[in-house]
């Protein structure tokens, strides 16, 4: 018996077609493409917060989580009239119109193209040359236990607090932890990357047996690499509530800092996160307010540049 050719989901006043809805995308439990779409409806406001008005690369998995993906930076010419885009410039000087989500319907449209996770730039469409987010990507080297990643995350938390910056942690949905920091869009990519390098080196000094800022893989040893290069122009990181490409559909799930010492990434999946979201809401919802009051921003210290000089 042939599978259902398509179904339609309603979101934000739009009807979004999901083709091949019965196709299995996550083999561990048999979740389908339609299950993935319904997941993004269930966590819609939280997932949208991570990509709202941000240029977003399409990372497509036409054969599901265990298939081979490909990146598509330019939005296809054949697209709904309501779909919004934003032009970005790459380091090469070339430009492209990328997806610019403004509602949950945009997320469902991406899911229909086979996008499992959402991969936004660290800028908003109002100013695509000045990031409003500094990103900390904790990447354990092969054989490093997740307990080490948790400890390094706590060190990052300490350094950020000393510089009056607020970090919002989340599981990566794979083997690491991400920490996002809202900043004012006053600095270019180079300055924000320099701040990320300084942060990484400060954490390395506090935990030299746990963390490393060494760029060359052969120098990292059995430590957690703090990947500061995720702050370079056109680099993207899976955003909050993104479902990652593994058979069990692990989620890049926001955490409170109290959860970090005991979190187990395997517990946060496509199957479990909707119930957590329904019960607790988005625990990272305060991120857009974490820069502080405007008066404090104008009169206070330059917090990002203070990181550069540590």
Write the layout of secondary structure elements.
Layout: E1 6-11, E2 14-19, E3 24-26, E4 31-32, H1 33-42, H2 44-51, E5 56-60, E6 70-72, E7 85-89, E8 95-99, H3 104-112, E9 119-120, E10 133-140, H4 146-162, E11 167-171, E12 177-182, H5 189-206, E13 211-212, E14 224-226, H6 273-280, H7 294-299, H8 303-308
Parallel strand pairs: 13-14
Antiparallel strand pairs: 1-2, 3-4, 5-6, 5-9, 7-8, 10-12, 10-14, 11-12
Helix pairs in contact: 1-3, 4-5
Structural commentary:
The protein has 310 residues and is of the alpha+beta class. The protein starts with 5 loop residues before the first strand and ends with a helix. The model is unreliable at 292-301 (pLDDT under 50). It contains 8 helices and 14 strands. The strands form 5 sheets. It has a 5-stranded mixed sheet. A 3-stranded antiparallel sheet has the order 6-5-9, with no helix packed on it. A two-stranded antiparallel ribbon has the order 1-2.
Radius of gyration: 19 Å
Taking the alpha carbons of the first and last residues, their distance comes to 64 Å
Multimerization status: single chain
Strand order, main sheet: write it out: 11-12-10-14-13
What is the mean predicted local confidence, pLDDT?
A: 94
Secondary-structure class:
alpha+beta
> Roughly how much helix do the residues carry, as a percent range?
25-40%
What form results from the Cα inertia axes? globular
What percent strand? Answer: 15-25%
Poorly predicted segments = 292-301
Reading the helices and strands in chain order gives EEEEHHEEEEHEEHEEHEEHHH
Number of strands: 14
Q: Which sheet architecture does the biggest sheet show?
A: 5 strands, mixed
**Helical stretch tally:** 8
